[in-house]
# Entry
Amino acid sequence: MRDVAAHAGVSPATVSYVINNRNRVGEAVRQRVLDAMKDLAYYPSASARSLVRQRTNLIGFLIPHRPESVFLDPYFAELMRGVAISADAHECSPVMVTVEGDDHARVVSGRLVRNNLVDGIIVSYLSDHDSYLLAEMEQTAIPFVIIGSAKKRSYTTVDVDNRDGAEQAMAHLLALGHHALGFINGPDDAPHARQRLWGVRSLLLAHELPLSCCPVVNGGFSREGGYAAMQQLLTSRGGEGAPTAVFAASDQMAVGAVQCLHERGVRVPDDISLVGFDDNLLATATYPTLTTVRQPIRQLGEMAADFLFKKINGLPLPPSITLPTELVVRDSTMARRAPAEGGPR
# Structure
């Protein structure tokens, strides 16, 4: 640093101001220092700058799910991509942490928060029993942003319109003439699963259809869960026969459902139409390509990180934002065929 100062004809303190982007240096002097740094090939240590700013230049991305469910789901890969884009723009790095079970979550979150290992935390899709994580972070005053919804309105959240997305999916199936339906949802303690269930039920009520025409089965937001849920739906309607259309609240579950149907010789969409939710890479990699509700996954992650950096830097921001969803129609849905045309429909 002293060599840079001598080369630029300024004091070492001025070089420090320029490196740490302090507003105490005129533009001409700043440029002279930058030119000197370039001439001398001087690159300031990131760790040294972190010490000066009392920052780690790291943000935590906490996902309260089992590691295998995270790494096998393209949804989380795309979400992390969005977080990484924002972090890179702010010259920071994200640290993804998965936790399984309440005890593990308490230990890991406590380690991140109390030891000041990160400058802030993004928390993704908490269940109802994860609220203690938010209380702990609030108590320590570490900046945090939630991807999903939260009961406390003062929390900063970034979410999608889950209810509207579910309504779009159901409206599509009803418009195709399907009234023998099934819904594969996530667990009851997941707020976004409940929001999608509300969307399904509101559409049925709006069309004056009984809720019994659409049995609901928990698929746990996993491929295996979707497979098992589809098995259950094929037999859960009693004497009414199999559904002619099924809405799965995630593409992972939809892919599991497709596998179940293929193994039983049930054709998609000829025998059963299927709609997913997410529009991740699975939607176009499966056969047939999946009609699904697109949510802006990468934008969710990028916006959550942008909001977190604003909180870290003390900048104002809205308490929450809800992004729109969009139905993408592909090959897994078709109009209900009359029974006379052949098959169980």
In short: The chain has three domains: 2-53, 58-160+297-324, 162-294+328-341. Residues 340-345 have pLDDT under 50 and may be disordered. Residues 310 and 316 are 7 Å apart (CA to CA). The first helix runs from residue 2 to 8.
